[in-house]
Amino acid sequence: MDKVKVGIIGVGNMGSGHINFVKNIPQAELVAICDIDQAKADEKVQVAGNGCRAFYSTDDLFAAKCVDMVIIAVPHYFHTPIAIEAFRNGIHVLCEKPIAVTKSDAQKMIDEHAKHPELRFGLMFQQRTLEAHRKIKKLIEGGEFGRILRVNWTVTDWFRSQSYYDSGSWRATWGGEGGGVLLNQCPHHLDLFQWFFGLPVKVRSTVSIGKYHDIEVEDDVNTYCEFADGSTGNFITSTGEFPGTNRLEISGTRGRMVFEEGVIKFRRTEEDVNEFCRTTPESFPSMTTWDIEIPYKKDVGQPHQNVTEAFVKAVLDPKAKLVAEGWEGIRSVEFGNAMLYSGLNKVEVPIPMDTAKYDAMLQDLIKNSRFKKKEAKKSVVDMNNSF
C-alpha cells in the first residue's frame, strides 16, 4: 500500500475541516465522503475533487470496500455504532473526541477493536500535539516539580450564549448530546488532565444544570479529586463566565508551575519543600526561590492534520505510534461521567466507577429530555451541520 484511502463520515463544521487536512497529507488519498445530508455530501465531494465519491449511509460506504480508514466526525452518540461497524468491515478508525458519551459505550468500541488487532484505532486529541502541553508533560515525567501535591485547572473560557444553545433542538439535551460542558467543550482538557496526572481514585463534584442558560444539562462544574498517592486536585469549568480563563496550576515539592495565556511560569524552590519543612529550626521560615519562564518550541503545522498524518503513517507502518490510542479515550469519558454522577446525586464517586449506575441515570434523564427519539432522523442532519 503506497497511499491510505480515507473516508470522512460526517461533514459538518469539524468534518469539513478534515477534507483539507487529508488533502494535505502526501500518504493519504481522500476517496469518500459520507453524510446523511445528501446535499451536504454532494457539495463536499466537489470540494474534495479527484474522483472522491459521496455516500449517504455508512452501510453503503462500507459495502463499497473503497476505504482503508475512516475519520468519524459525527455527533457523540453515533461514534460507538459507526466505529464498531468499521472494525467489523476491516477498516481503521480515527475518531473525533470524545470517544463516546459513556464509559460503557467506550468499552464496547475498545472490546470490538480488540477482536481486530491488525487495525489501528486512534482519537483526535490534537491538544496533545501542542508544544506547551508536551513540555508540561515532559517536566512532570522528569520530576522537575518534585512530588506533585496539588493541581488546579480552571477552564472557564467556554462562554456560550443562549442563542448558541437555541441553534438546534438537540443541543444541550440528554437525548441529543448526552451532556453539556463536560461532554461538548471539555473533552480535550479532561484528556490532558489524566494524561498529565493520571486518573484520580475518587471525585466529588458540584454540578449546576442550566445555571446560566435555559438548558437541561450542566453548564457549571466544580470538582474535587483525590489521587492514589494522596495528592489532590480541582477541575472547574463553565460556559457562563466572561471573561473566562484557562489556568493550570501545579504545586509540587520543588515549587509551583502556572500555565496561563500561553506562558509556563515556574517558581522553583532551592530545596525540597517537604524536607525543608521537617528539618528547619525556624517557626515562620522562607526559602529562596527562582522565578523561571520555561521556553518551549513553536507549534508546527495544524494540530488536527498532525494527528491525522501520524495516523496515516501508522496504518502504513504498524510500528509507528499514534498521538492517542483509542483505548486511552475511555479515561477522560470515565472522569467526566464520574463528575456528572457525583454532582447530580450529591455523592462521592470512586474510580473505577459503577458504569451500570451511570447508564441507568442517563437513561432516566433521556426519558425526560426535550429531544425525543422521533426527532432524531431530522435532527441528525442539523447536528452534523453544526458539529
Task: Tell me what the structure shows.
It is a single chain. The protein has 387 residues and is α/β, with parallel strands linked by helices. It contains 14 helices and 15 strands. A hairpin with a 2-residue loop joins β12 and β13. The longest helix has 17 residues.
What's the SSE blueprint?
Blueprint: E1 4-9, H1 13-23, E2 28-34, H2 38-48, E3 53-55, H3 58-63, E4 69-72, H4 79-88, E5 92-95, H5 103-114, E6 121-123, H6 131-141, E7 148-155, H7 162-166, H8 181-184, H9 187-197, E8 202-209, E9 218-226, E10 232-238, E11 246-252, E12 255-260, E13 263-269, H10 273-279, E14 289-294, H11 303-316, H12 329-345, E15 349-350, H13 355-367, H14 376-386
Parallel strand pairs: 1-2, 1-4, 2-3, 4-5, 5-6, 7-10
Antiparallel strand pairs: 7-11, 8-9, 8-15, 9-10, 11-12, 12-13, 13-14
Helix pairs in contact: 4-5, 6-9, 9-12
Keywords:
387 residues, alpha/beta, 6-stranded parallel beta sheet, globular, disordered C terminus
Brief characterization of the structure:
By secondary structure, the protein is α/β, with parallel strands linked by helices.
Q: Could you state the order of secondary-structure elements as H and E?
A: EHEHEHEHEHEHEHHHEEEEEEHEHHEHH
Radius of gyration: 22 Å
Distance between the termini: 32 Å
Q: Write down the overall geometry.
A: globular
Largest sheet descriptor: 9 strands, mixed
CATH superfamily of the largest domain: Dihydrodipicolinate Reductase, domain 2
Number of domains: 2
Summed over residues and divided by their number, the pLDDT gives a mean of 95
Strand order of the largest sheet: 14-13-12-11-7-10-9-8-15
Outline the low-pLDDT stretches.
376-387
Using the coordinates above, name the CATH class of the largest domain.
Alpha Beta
Strand count:
15
